[in-house]
Amino acid sequence: MAPRKNAKELPPAPSTLVRRPSSVGSPLPGPLSISIPPEERDVIKVNNYSATELKNACDDALKRYLSRPVLFKQIHLHTDVRLAFGWAGVFTAAATGLYGWKTDFEKSKPGVWAGFILYLVLTSLQTLYSYFVEGDTVFVGRRKTFSKRIITERITISSRTLPVPSSKLSLKPSPTNSPSYSLSINYVQSTSGGKSLLAKGRTQEAKEYSAFFDEKGVMAQEVFERWIGELVEAVMEGKGA
Q1: What is the C-alpha separation between 67 and 75, in angstroms, rounded?
Q2: Helices marked H in 67-197
Q3: What is the DSSP letter of 141?
Q4: pLDDT recorded at residue 70
Q5: Maximum separation of any 2 CA atoms in the chain, in Å
Q6: For position 8, what pLDDT does the model report?
Q7: What is the pLDDT of residue 47?
Q8: Element (H or E) spanning 231, and its range?
Q9: Alpha carbon of 174 to those of 56, 70, 177, 215: distances in Å?
Q10: 77 near 140, Cβ under 8 Å?
């Protein structure tokens, strides 16, 4: 992949947006209304030929951008669940090993087998949770406001890398045949503890990594944040593509 020299925006990929059932807007400002001073930014540089590094850099920048004060408070439920399974597996393995070391070999067999099976179960649950429940989710945020009633907004964002389409593959790499960063955004606005739905929306869009990184692998954070902000605000306001 040969990123473009200047990080300029590419025409957005087709997106799908579900119209919200009401005209209720968010009582708080959207991402684009809160700017980030240049002095608060750190230079982000990655290997342009590593799709993993490109995706991780975009995921981290997205989380930093949306979890700022007044915007969304990030919910770490998926991380907490995976850590709980992981630590439970570690303690199970440690306890099983200690029991086997301090107990006679023949007498410790049932306990060791039980610990081994429990460890396999915990590890399997962690893997299954990551694959089927967490999936590609990179950000879950929530914020509450009081506007005659308590309104809760929740946003869930999933990301993945789209490979270069076979029709664009060529011997000479160019900015138009680089992998793309794909986002799926779901937004829900509710009240009464989630019992009353006020609005909801979703959108899905992709953009090539070369739109966000120059030829040296330096990220154009303003370009990336503007793209994210436009997508999020479009979902929050229920605007069509």
Answers
A1: 10
A2: 77-102, 105-128
A3: E
A4: 81
A5: 71
A6: 43
A7: 92
A8: helix 221-237
A9: 22, 40, 6, 11
A10: yes
